[in-house]
Amino acid sequence: MYEHCPHCGLKFEVEPGYFYAAMYVSYAFSVAEVVTLGLATAMLTKSESPWLYVSVLFAAIFIFAPFNLRYSRLVLLHYLSPKIVYNPVYERASEKK
Known about the structure:
Distance between the termini: 23 Å
Order of helices and strands: HHH
Number of domains: 1
Radius of gyration: 19 Å
Structural class: mainly alpha
Number of strands: 0
Largest sheet: none
Strand content: under 5%
């Protein structure tokens, strides 16, 4: 992730340790994915083998890790942070440079 926005120059890390809160958002994403895939595996396979569930869920966690990293920070910046607000004045100023 960029330290500053390449378009407007906004520093993404508003304060030291700001993105530690993104771990909680990422955890919520992971729980939702694991529960969904666990239930889907149970409904589709009717299997009682724990190794099937473990392999499906570990594969899902591994595959979705990059998604969770990027989008947890995005959710934190855009939806859970009142400190960062879009201002079109800065966009026009960066276009003139």
